[in-house]
Amino acid sequence: MATGDALHMDGRKAPKVMVRPATEADFPDLKRILRETFESTWRPEITPLAARRYLETDVGGSFVDAQGLDFLIAIVDGEVAGLVSWQDDFIDALHVGTRHQRLGIGRALMNEAEKAIRAVGQTQVRLETDSFNVRSQAFYRALGYEEKDRYPDVEWESGLTTVLFGKKFQNPLVE
Question: What does the pLDDT read at residue 155?
Fold first, then answer.
């Protein structure tokens, strides 16, 4: 689908990233990435009860089983490094494995997702993150997203605040 060379934030050359649709053979790696990002990002911020519920019901694994064939994934050196998923104009998941973070993989995945969203006639793209995740907020702002709203996060039942971001496409497709 897409490949790209980019630079690290410190100016070093980033690895070559290939973005392609996921296959069932990728599911174990996708589940691993969701476990890693849960442990590193979400688990420290949510209640022990919410963490236990997430793990016991295998929310990440169920998400991959149900929608994994709709994901785009990033491949670096033959390894699945990240994933992006969306419905209509809403990106509902962007995850990059902990070993591959800050290498331009999230940017490559977002670029491809935005192209696909725009190609079906959407005029904007939206997504959510949480207020504690200042790194993701900075990332989305760097991609041209603007904060649109804040509201209670009901998914984690942990008193978090969701931040809604949006981005209008500069030149909407005209039919």
Answer: 87
One-letter amino acid identity for 171?
A: N
* Separation CA 64–CA 119 (nearest Å): 24
Q: With pLDDT > 70 as the criterion, what percentage of the chain qualifies?
A: 89
Q: Would the pLDDT of 17 be above 50? A: yes
- 63 token code pair: 């998400």
Task: Tell me if 43 sits within 8 A of 33, measured CB to CB.
Answer: no
pTM to 2 decimals? 0.88
Q: What is the DSSP string of the chain?
A: -EEE--B-TTSPBPPPEEEEE--GGGHHHHHHHHHHHIIIIITTTS-HHHHHHHHHTTHHHHHHHHHGGG-EEEEETTEEEEEEEEETTEEEEEEE-GGGTTSSHHHHHHHHHHHHHHHTT-SEEEEEEETT-HHHHHHHHHTT-EEEEEEE--SS-SS-EEEEEEEE-SS----
pLDDT for residue 15: 82
Query: Distances from the Cα of 55 to the Cαs of 6, 51, 130, 153, in angstroms?
Result: 35, 6, 20, 19
CA–CA gap between residue 106 and residue 100 (Å, rounded): 9
